[in-house]
Amino acid sequence: MDLLRFITAGSVDDGKSTLIGRLLYDSKSIMIDQLEAIEKQSRNKEEGEIDLALLTDGLRAEREQGITIDVAYKYFSTPKRKFIIADAPGHIQYTRNMVTGASNADLAIILIDARNGVVEQTRRHSIITSLLNIPHVIVAINKMDMVNYSQDVYNNIVIDYSKVAQSLGLKDITYIPISALHGDNIVERSVRLDWYEGSSLLQFLEEVEVQRDIDLVNGRFPVQYVIRPQSDDLHDYRGYAGKIISGIYRKGDEVTIQPSGSRSTIKAIEIGGREVEEAYAPQSVVLHLNDDIDISRGDVIANNGRKPGSSQELEVLLCWMDNKPLVPGNKYLLQLNSRVVRAVVREIEYKLDVNTLQQEAYPQQAVLNDVIKVTIKTASPVPYDPYKTLRANGGAILIDETSHVTVGACMIQ
Amino acid sequence: MSAYRLDYLDQLESEAIHILREVAGQFERPALLFSGGKDSITLVHLALKAFRPGKFPFPLVHIDTGHNFQEALDFRDALVQELGEKLIVRKVEDTIRTKQLTEPRGKFASRNALQTYTLLDTIEEFKFDACIGGARRDEEKARAKERIFSVRDEFGQWDPKRQRPELWNTYNGRIHKGENVRVFPISNWTELDVWNYIRREQIALPSIYFAHERPVIEHEGQLVAVSEFIQLDDTDTVLTKKVRYRTVGDMTCTAAVESAAGNIDDIIREITATKTSERGETRIDDKVSEAAMEDRKKNGYF
Fold it and tell me: Chain A to chain B, count of Cβ pairs less than 8 Å apart?
C-alpha cells in the first residue's frame, strides 16, 4: 500500500465539493458524527437532503460567507492506497492557493461541467497544472446526468480539451465521464455510461503509477542538520541528517558536495539508527562520509549522476503570493529545500496571463496571483535543478525579510 | 512492492522525520509538547529516529492540568527516564493560583481552556520559538486547514486568513520576536495510520488505551470515568464496564469506549469497523459548538 497526493481543481459550481464528499462517503471515510453534523447544517440551510459539499467546508468564517479561503487537506484510504486530497478553491483570485495545493501533488483532477465544456477556468487550472509540472492529469467531465449521459457531449469536450493539453504540453491525461452527485463512475463503472470503456475514477486513482515519477538516477541530498553527539563513546560521530529527494545512495559511492564542489565517498548510511547498504528517495537518512569536510545545513550532497546547476543568477517563473506588490530591485530571502540565501529580484521580463498564456512584456510590478518571469540574483551560489527536470530541487520560495511571510513560489527554469 | 518503493507508513515516517529535522535546523529554542497520548508518544519515537545517537535538540514539555490519568503520568515519567531526555512540567494549578483565574464550574468542569494560559506562560518563560505537537488534520475541520508550520502571534493566536502558503516540502519558520511556530509533523497521518505505525514499530503505550475494567457513569451516550475530578449527581449510576480510551486527554473531558480490545490488533480491527470519529466519540469538549475547535485555536489552543 502506498500514498497518492492529488489536487482537485474546480469550483463549487463544477461539483468539486460534491466529488470530494462522494469519494469520502463512498470509501466510508465519513463517520456518523460528521454526517450528523452536516445533516444538521443541511437542515439549518433549509435544504431537504444531505449536502455532500458541506463535508469539505471547514471554518465557520467560511461557512458564514459561503466561501473557501484556503487549501484544506482530506484523507481517505482503500485497501490499495492512502490518499491525500489538497482541496484548493477554484475561484479566480486564488491562484495562490491552487499553486500551494498543487506543489506536492502527484496528480490533478480537473473538473469540467459537462454543460459548459472547456471554459476560462479550465484553462487556468490546466496552465497552473502545467506550471507546477504535476505528472498526471484526470479530466473529470462531471454532471453527465445533466446531459443525459451523452457520449457526444463527452467526445466534444475531449476534443476541445486535448487542444488545451497539447498547447500546454500536458502529459498523461485521462478523461473520465462522471456524475459526482449520483455516484456514476466514481467507485464503480456506471451502467448509464456503458459506452465509456475506461476505469472508474477511484479505480484509476488506485492504480496510477506514481512512485515511478521519482528520479532514482540523479541523487540529491540536502543536508538539514548535522548530528554530533560529542559524547565520550561517540566522539568521532558526525552524521549528516536529511531526506534523499532523488536518487539512490550506496555505501562506497562517490559524492560531490555542492556548492563547494568537494568530493568524498559514503562511509555509512543509517535509517532510524539502523545501518543499511543503500537508501533511496524519499527516505530520511543519516549519511557518513570518509573525508572530514566542512558540510553544513543547506549544502547538497549529490551522487555521481547529472551534476546539479550552481548559480547566483536564476531564471525563474514566479507566482506572487503577497498582498504587497513585487517591485523589482527589492531584496528577499530565497529558500530552496534547506538552503536560505539573500536574493534580489531583477527586472520583470514578462507577466503570464494564466487564462490565455499571453505574455505582457516588462510590467512595472507584480501583484497577488500574478505569474511572472524574472531573474533572481542570489548572494551565494544555489545548487539547483530546473523545475521541469527535477521538481524536488527546482522549486523555491521567496520570503520577505521584514514581514517573514512567504511571498512567492519560484519554479527555476 | 518492488524495490525502491516505499510503503505509505515509510513515506509518512520520512516526512515527519524531515519536519522534525527542519525544526532542529531552523529554530533556536524548540520544544516538543508531550501530552502522554499516543500521538505525542509517536512523535517521541519519530524524534528518536530523527536524532539518535544524538540527544533531542528540544526538551519535552508537559502542560499538566492536574486532571490527568495516573497511568498516563506514570508512563510519561518512565519514558523520560528511559530516554534520558529533559522533561519540563508546568501545572495549570499554579497558573490558576498566580493569575487568579476562575475555574469553570459544573459537572465536567474542564481545565482544557485554562491550559492555554499555562502553555503561553511556559512559552514565554523558556522563550520557545517552536512548539512541536501531535495534532493531525483528520481530527477536525479547523485542523484540516492548518499548515505544518503554523505561525502564532504573541498571544498564541492562529489566524486562518493570514496563513503562509506552504509549498513543496519547504517550511518557512522565520518569525518576529515574541511569535512562535506550532509544528505538526504528523499532520498527514490519520488515526488509523498512527495505530498501524504503533503496531509496526511496537511502540509501548499507557495501559488505558487497552481494554480494562473501570467504574464509569453514562452521560449523553458517553462513558466518563468516575474520578475525584467530576461531580456525581444523585441520578448518576456508577457501572463497572470494560472500556478503553481512543484518545487520552483530561479525565473530565475524555470519554471511554466500551471495548474488549486487549491488544493493538484488536484495536485496529475496532477502529476499522467504527462508525464514529475519534474526537466525536471521545471528546466532550468539542461538542459545545460547531466551531469549538476553530475558536479555541484562534485563542492560542494547540
Answer: 178
Q: What CATH number is attached to the domain comprising A86?
A: 3.40.50.300
Same domain, A352 and A253: no
Q: Write the CATH number for A240.
A: 2.40.30.10
- Longest Cα separation, chain A: 76
Q: For A273-316, what is each residue's pLDDT tens digit? A: 999 999 999 999 999 999 999 999 999 999 988 999 999 999 99
- Phi/psi at B180 (nearest 5 deg)? -145, 165
ipTM for the predicted complex: 0.93
Contacts of A75 in chain B (CB under 8 A): 137-138, 188, 190
Q: Assess whether A237 and A373 both reside in one domain.
A: no
Q: Which of A31, A73, A81 sits opposite B137 (nearest CB)?
A: A73
User: What is the CATH architecture assignment of B8-192+291-298?
Assistant: 3-Layer(aba) Sandwich (3.40)
If we measure between CA atoms, which residue out of A130, A116, A119 comes closest to residue A165? A130
Predicted local distance difference test score (pLDDT) of residue A48: 42
Three-state DSSP state, B136: coil
Is the CB of residue A377 less than 8 Å from the CB of residue A395? no
> Based on the structure, what is the number of domains in chain A?
3
Neighbour-count burial of A261, counting CB atoms closer than 10 A to its CB (0-12 exposed, 13-18 middle, 19+ buried) = exposed
Residues from chain B contacting residue A34 (CB–CB below 8 Å): 277, 280
User: Does residue B1 have a pLDDT over 50?
Assistant: no
User: Which residues belong to CATH 3.40.50.620 in chain B?
Assistant: 8-192+291-298
Structure confidence by residue, pLDDT tens digits, A10-57: 766 778 888 888 888 887 776 666 666 766 665 555 444 556 666 665
Q: Both A166 and A27 in a single domain?
A: yes
Substitution target from B7, B21, B281 for chain A, most A beta carbons within 10 A? B21
Residues of A in contact with B11 (CB under 8 A): 2-3, 282
